[in-house]
Amino acid sequence: MNIFSGFSLIAHSIPYIVNGVWTTLEIALVSAVTGMVLGILLSLCKIGRIKILALLADFYTSIFRGTPLILQLTIVYFATPQLIGYDISAFLAAVITFGFNSGAYMSEIIRSGINAVDKGQFEAAGALGVPYGAMMKDIILPQAVKKILPAMMNEFITLTKESAIVSTIGVLDLMRRAQVVAAENSLYFPPLIVSFVVYYFLIMILTILGRLFERRMSRSD
Amino acid sequence: MIKVEQLHKSFGTNEVLKDISLEIKKGDVVAIIGPSGSGKSTLLRCINLLETPTQGNIFIDDQNVTTINNRNMIKIREKVGMVFQHFHLFPHKTVLENLTYAPVKVKNKTKQEAVQIADELLKRVGLSEKAEAYPSRLSGGQKQRVAIARALAMEPDYLLFDEPTSALDPEMVKEVLDVMMDLAKQGMTMAVVTHEMGFARMVADKVIFMDKGQILEVAPPEEFFSHPKTDRAKDFLEKVL
């Protein structure tokens, strides 16, 4: 059997695989937003004056960076029902794990961005009497985000790709759907290459959107 | 009135200010001069609470600001404006937004009021046509004039200048000094750390000469520039004039 007849054999399943992209995107987006919010909070703890919060935030980061993501996911999905008796859905387990994990990485990215903002900006805002919260929100973070946009985009792309491991807990994402079709037909190359191509174009589109966004943000330069 | 009493400031073991006492009366223009590293900037930064003094008291309108809480600190900073050597305009905001942000956020002015005040101030510093520009499009002199306007937009009682012309190309110094002279004429209370001796001589009511963290001389400019009392001041003036 040649490659082409393999593709024609699974042709009716191709839309099923391709539609997995929505699940993949959904997980990536929800996790990215969760990670962003967590990352901002954690980074503020890290640069703040309250020692105990800084230590806790560092500890949080070390936990998520110091263990495999697939292990974190497995614990959240399989151990949660046994620990607290809540029958967690695969999707929720996925976005919690990815969101919390991404929060750890994002906090480091944002922290480096805040540190890269000229100290004079803090002083100028302070000298005008701008309170800490408003200063961070309106003056410091917008400048920090601009500096770390490429790193944040990178994190989001990693998140999108790495979300493929949710296939291990049965979420029907791009990866899992390809595996399902492969198993049904005992045919590996065609379905896997379909998801391969979809992942690739998805990431390319995200990269281009990221570049456009970066350009828009740099209009004040 | 700003009154500084026996102020000390150390960074680690390095004592930058040693027993500084001075007074700045309403309407006064005080020029603070001296060699680099003499503690002039640190003194200004202490007055504006950007640095916490190690010892001593600073009174602003009879309120001791060295023992102040956060909320009152904001009130004091509304009263005391600051202009920095490197401008520190907000790069992601337009000139107009730079001027209106703090009045709206801190003084609860309406957007309309703030814009009106900003328009007048921009006219005053001669930059009306730059209202919609981003700071990166301005020259150094223009940036500093915007920074002065931004400080004025808070309607402060006192204005502190930390070497406002030191980062400027020589041909832009005058446009900034002109704005400052204009302010002095209108009775603004100002403390200016500067290397512009001409400005100090012409505009200041009082010259404070500092060296190695101490105030060595306080005198009217004519007296200071023609008859400096200390050798250190004579030496300094010989080098800069």
UniProtKB/TrEMBL annotation, chain B:
It comes from the Bacteria. PROSITE patterns: ABC_TRANSPORTER_1, ABC_TRANSPORTER_2. One of its GO terms (molecular function) is ATP binding. InterPro entries: AAA+_ATPase, ABC_ATPase_HisP-typ, ABC_transporter-like_ATP-bd, ABC_transporter-like_CS, MetN_ABC_transporter-like, P-loop_NTPase. It holds the Pfam family ABC_tran. Keywords: ATP-binding, Nucleotide-binding, Transport. Residues 2-237 form the ABC transporter domain. PANTHER family: AMINO ACID IMPORT ATP-BINDING PROTEIN (PTHR43166), ARGININE TRANSPORT ATP-BINDING PROTEIN ARTM (PTHR43166:SF37). This is ATP-binding cassette domain-containing protein. It comes from Terrilactibacillus tamarindi. The lineage of its organism: Bacteria, Bacillati, Bacillota, Bacilli, Bacillales.
